Amino acid sequence: MKVAVVGATGMVGEVMLKVLKERNFPISELLLVASERSVGKQISYNGQSISVIGLADAVTARPDLAIFSAGGDTSLIWAPKFAAAGTTVIDNSSAWRMDPEKKLVVPEINANKLTKEDKIIANPNCSTIQLVMVLAPLHAKYKMKRVVVSTYQSVSGTGVKAVKQLENEMAGIQGEMAYPYPINRNALPHCDTFMENGYTKEEMKLAREPQKILDDRTFSISATAVRIPTAGGHSESVNVEFKSDFELNEVRRILKNTPGVIVQDNPDTNTYPMPVYAHDKDDVFVGRIRRDETQRKTLNMWIVADNLRKGAATNAIQIAEYLVDNELL
């Protein structure tokens, strides 16, 4: 299979290459694609040195599959060009997520809706993926009414520039700023740009994307997204009001039986999810599972995942695996 990775020189692109190799994805030819300034750069993959090519050359090469992580503007222009050439595109940006004609997919939840006609497939927001992985099985059982989520997001979600800002500040070096304020020893309630309603784009992604993935708009989500000085891994404090009541033991049993979810929940041994545990793993971790004592039928949880893996690269490649396994390419 001829596969193109678009945005191969970025943080997510690098992780995509790592995950493709780890999962032994069937590749006969690998095209590494990036912006013009990176064309000609050599990248090592599976013991082979591959030259980076530009987008136009990649479209001409007609890959079977193109996995995008190159930003929304690039995806809006180039994903349709790849699709017109017969390539199936899996896009990691926000460009196509809320397009009613495009599927928004977390494989464990809704990959079965994919068909051969889906030439542009949207990969959800990193914070959304880990949230719905935990909410989906509980929603199926108890039916969600309202969700309140606060995120604690790694600087790696912003990109290389933000990681460098944190490293510089920790070392006492004055450097380029990805954020309007210092991030070291700080917390910024500001992920993505602010909208007219006072929420950020990241917060509205968390509000809207789960409804589309679960194909259900009977529940609502209110989000506050915060950037914190961790190098990798997003965390979420989640409060869920259900229509039906629940037993905590049953909640834990449901989550333990959910593929891709690991329960870490034992206060007696200080066992709970943390970014340091989730690093370089593909699972979503959940703990601090407890009843909200201020309101009936309401649950509190703490959810953590590696935002560059399950939150981005791994989810996209799992979509690709589903397409291959079900002969949809």
Give a written overview of the molecule:
With 329 residues, the protein is of the alpha/beta class. The longest helix has 17 residues, at 126-142. 33% of the residues lie in helices and 23% in strands. The protein contains ten helices and 14 strands. Strand 12 (261-263), helix 9 and strand 13 (284-291) form a beta-alpha-beta unit. Helix 1 packs across helix 10 (309-325), helix 5 packs across helix 7 (201-213) and helix 5 (126-142) crosses helix 10. The mean pLDDT is 97. The protein has two domains: 2-124 and 312-325, Rossmann fold (3-Layer(aba) Sandwich); 127-307, Dihydrodipicolinate Reductase, domain 2, CATH 3.30.360.10. The strands form three sheets. The chain has a six-stranded parallel sheet with strand order 2-1-5-6-8-7, sandwiched between helices. A six-stranded mixed sheet has the order 10-9-11-14-13-12. It is globular.
